[in-house]
Design a protein that fits this description.
Blueprint (H helix, E strand, L loop, with lengths): L1 E5 L2 E2 L2 E2 L1 H11 L5 E4 L6 H4 L5 E7 L9 H15 L2 E7 L2 H14 L2 E11 L2 E6 L4 E6 L5 E5 L15 E5 L28 E5 L6 H13 L3 E4 L1 H5 L20 E5 L5 H7 L4 E6 L12 E4 L2 H12 L7
Helix pairs in contact: 3-4
Bound molecules: flavin-adenine dinucleotide.
C-alpha cells in the first residue's frame, strides 16, 4: 500500500502546505508518491525528501486545475498507479473541493481537517472549531483526507530523488471552466508559513491603526494577521483573516492585539507555540490560551514595541 499527496502550485512554486502534507503522509511509514497537476514544478517536487514517485499527466499544461478534473485525475491515478490506501491534500480550497468528489468516484472514505496521524488508518481531526478532538479509524480500503498544514512541519525540499511517472491524460471536466483567478494583493509576509504573526482585532479601531501594526510586523519580520471582525470592518484584507473561516496558523510566536479570543478565532491560532495577548479586558477569552497576557491599552504596548524595534508609529 502507498500514499499519494496532491501537490499544489502557489505563485509558481510548490506550496509550503504541500510539504507539510508530505510530512503527514510519511508518518504512516508507507511509500509516498506525489501527484502533480502542474508538470512545470516537476524538477522541484522530485527533490522533496522521502518521496518515491512524481506522477504527472502527459500534456497537462494548466497551472490551475478545477476540482472536478482533479477528482477524475485522482480516480485514474488510483486505478493505474495505486492502489493507494491514503490520498491526501492540504485542507484548503482545492483539496476540500476535490477530495470528497474523488472519494465518491472511487467509493472511498473522506476525512477532513486531520491534525495528527496515529497509524496507517488512524487519524485525529478537530470538530466544532477545535472544541472536540476526534480519533477516527477508517474501515475503507482507500481514504481521502485533507490535512491541516499548520499541524505538521514541512518536509525538506532537497535530498530526495522522486522518479517521474508520466500517465495518459484524461479529458478535463467540461461543464465548468476556470475563467480567471484573481489573487488578492500580497500584503507583507505569507501568513501560513510565518514564524511570527502579529495580529490585530476590532480593538485597533481603524484601518490606519492596522496599517501601523502591519509596519511593526514588517520590522519584526512577522506576517500580519487579523480577526474576522477586523476584516469585516475593512481594517485588513480577507487574506489576513485567521480562524475557522480564515487561515490556520501555528507560528513560533503569535501576538494578538485587541482580539477578544472568540472560539472561531482560537480555532485558527491556538496551536501557536507561544501566544502573547494584549487586551484591556482582563476577562477576554484570549487570555485562556495566552502564554503571556498583558491587560492594558494596546496602543501603549504597540508604542513601546515600536520604540524597541525602531518602527515609526502614528497616533491613535
Ligand atoms: C461561523 C463563524 C465563523 C467565524 N470565523 C471567524 C474566523 O475565522 N476568525 C475570526 O477571528 N472570527 C471568526 N468569527 C467571528 C468571531 O465569532 C468573533 O466575532 C471575532 O473573532 C471577534 O473579533 P475581535 O476579537 O477582533 O472583536 P471583538 O470581539 O469585538 O473584540 C475586540 C477586543 O478588543 C479589546 N480592545 C478594545 N480596545 C482595546 C484597546 N485600546 N486596548 C486593548 N484591547 C482593546 C476589547 O476588550 C475586545 O476584547 C466567526 C463567527 C462565526 C459565527
Amino acid at each position: 500500500m502507498r500514499s499519494l499527496v496532491v501537490a499544489e502550485n502557489e505563485n509558481g512554486r510548490v506550496a509550503d502546505a504541500t510539504l507539510r502534507v508530505i510530512t503527514a503522509a510519511l508518518q504512516r511509514a508507507l511509500p509516498v508518491d506525489v501527484f502533480l497537476p502542474d508538470p512545470a514544478l516537476a524538477s522541484t517536487v522530485e527533490k522533496i525528501a522521502g518521496i518515491e514517485r512524481v506522477l504527472m499527466m502527459a500534456g497537462a499544461a494548466s497551472e490551475y486545475v478545477v476540482p472536478e478534473t482533479l477528482a477524475a485525475q485522482l480516480h485514474r491515478m488510483h486505478a493505474m498507479h495505486g492502489p493507494y490506501s491514503l490520498i491526501a491534500a492540504s485542507h484548503r480550497t482545492l483539496g476540500r473541493s476535490a477530495l470528497p468528489r474523488a472519494a465518491a468516484l472511487v467509493g472511498g472514505a473522506f476525512i477532513p481537517d486531520v491534525i495528527a496521524v496515529e497509524g496507517e488508518g488512524s487519524f485525529v481531526r478537530s470538530l466544532y472549531a477545535g472544541s472536540v478532538i476526534a480519533n477516527v479509524n477508517t474501515a475503507s480500503a482507500v481514504t481521502f483526507a485533507t490535512f491541516r498544514a499548520s499541524s505538521f512541519a514541512p518536509a525538506a525540499d532537497s535530498g530526495g530523488n522522486g522518479r517521474r511517472v508520466i500517465a495518459e491524460p484524461i479529458a478535463g471536466f467540461s461543464r465548468t471552466k476556470l475563467v480567471e483567478r484573481q489573487a488578492s494583493a500580497q500584503t507583507g509576509r505569507e501568513l501560513s508559513d510565518a514564524r511570527i504573526v502579529v495580529a490585530g482585532g476590532r480593538g485597533l479601531g481603524s484601518k490606519d491603526n492596522m496599517e501601523r501594526l502591519g509596519k511593526l510586523a514588517e520590522k519584526m519580520g512577522a506576517a500580519l494577521g487579523a480577526s474576522r471582525a477586523a476584516v469585516d470592518a475593512g481594517y485588513a484584507p480577507n487574506s489576513a483573516q485567521v480562524g475557522q473561516t480564515g487561515k490556520m496558523v501555528a507560528p513560533d510566536v503569535y501576538l494578538a492585539f485587541g482580539i477578544s479570543g472568540a472560539i472561531q478565532h482560537l480555532a485558527g491560532m491556538k496551536d501557536s507555540k507561544t501566544i502573547v495577548a494584549v487586551n484591556k479586558d482582563p476577562d477576554a477569552p484570549i487570555f485562556s490560551v495566552a502564554d503571556i497576557g498583558l491587560v492594558g491599552d494596546l496602543f501603549e504596548v504597540v508604542g513601546e514595541i515600536e520604540a524597541q524595534v525602531g518602527a515609526g508609529g502614528t497616533s491613535r
